[in-house]
Design goal:
The protein is built from 7 helices and 2 strands. By secondary structure, it is mostly helical. It has a domain of 152 residues: Lysozyme (Orthogonal Bundle), CATH 1.10.530. A two-stranded antiparallel ribbon has the order 1-2. Helix 3 runs parallel beside helix 5.
Length: 245
């Protein structure tokens, strides 16, 4: 899995330029800002580590308004009024969902997963089809799920820039991704991967439970982004609430 953007998850600690000045009085405005910053950062870190403990979880609903704003700025996470659009307009999002709907339905039937959840995963990974992984020649790899090409992969490969989270830091790198002739190949490969890999058995037959599916992927190591499950859950629930489109 690749992160949709290259700066989604910077460190939550203040940089030298923004760190509160040492030695300020606890009653001073600077100290108050420093305490607030540390409090919000800790709240965000706790959320990422433990998830949303609220009944409908997965969309930062347990965070305070200030912390949600902080998370949105530093982690690319959803804000209270987030639409999951990623800057893609409504007609383009709708066209993408309609294009992949039959593929999501087929894969969902084989995996025991609501097709809306798979559509949300494809939208999250590919920027609603607007930011596809491309090979060196600029050709679309049709890789809608950010699946990397391991050494035993025998198919086509697209080497592309990506971002991974390492020790809490977003790191720009280049990786080899699987490439397909069309979008159907991507859905078929995701289905094979989840059904055949022991790491992802917990994602199978999760039905309409978006959070269970997303968390199972994260536990299996599908993504390095620690907020991946929350992002996928939130977007999937939005699609489910609109009948999958």
């Amino acid at each position: 899995m690749r992160l949709p953007d290259s700066t989604l998850f910077p460190a939550l600690t203040p940089t030298a330029a923004t760190a509160p000045t040492a030695g300020l009085s606890a009653r001073s405005e600077g100290a108050g800002f420093g305490n607030l910053y540390r409090s919000l950062s800790q709240e965000v870190q706790d959320y990422i580590a433990h998830g949303d403990s609220s009944p409908d979880g997965g969309n930062a609903t347990a965070l305070s308004a200030e912390a949600r704003a902080r998370w949105a700025l530093s982690a690319g996470g959803p804000t209270e009024d987030a639409t999951g659009s990623g800057g893609v307009d409504a007609p383009a999002r709708q066209a993408f969902l309609e294009q992949i709907a039959p593929l999501a339905a087929q894969a969902g039937a084989q995996l025991g997963v609501d097709p809306a959840i798979l559509s949300a995963q494809a939208a999250l990974e590919s920027g609603w089809g607007q930011r596809p992984l491309r090979n060196a020649a600029g050709e679309n790899s049709h890789n809608l799920f950010g699946i990397k090409a391991s050494t035993d992969w025998k198919g086509a490969v697209a080497e592309a820039a990506t971002t991974e989270v390492e020790n809490g830091q977003a790191v720009a790198t280049t990786a080899r991704f699987r490439a397909y002739a069309d979008a159907s190949g991507s859905f078929q490969d995701l289905t094979r991967l989840l059904r055949n890999s022991p790491r992802y058995q917990g994602a199978l037959n999760t039905g309409s439970d978006a959070q269970a599916y997303a968390q199972a992927l994260s536990r299996g190591g599908y993504a390095t982004d620690p907020a991946y499950a929350a992002k996928l859950t939130g977007l999937a629930r939005q699609l489910q609430s609109r009948g999958g489109n």
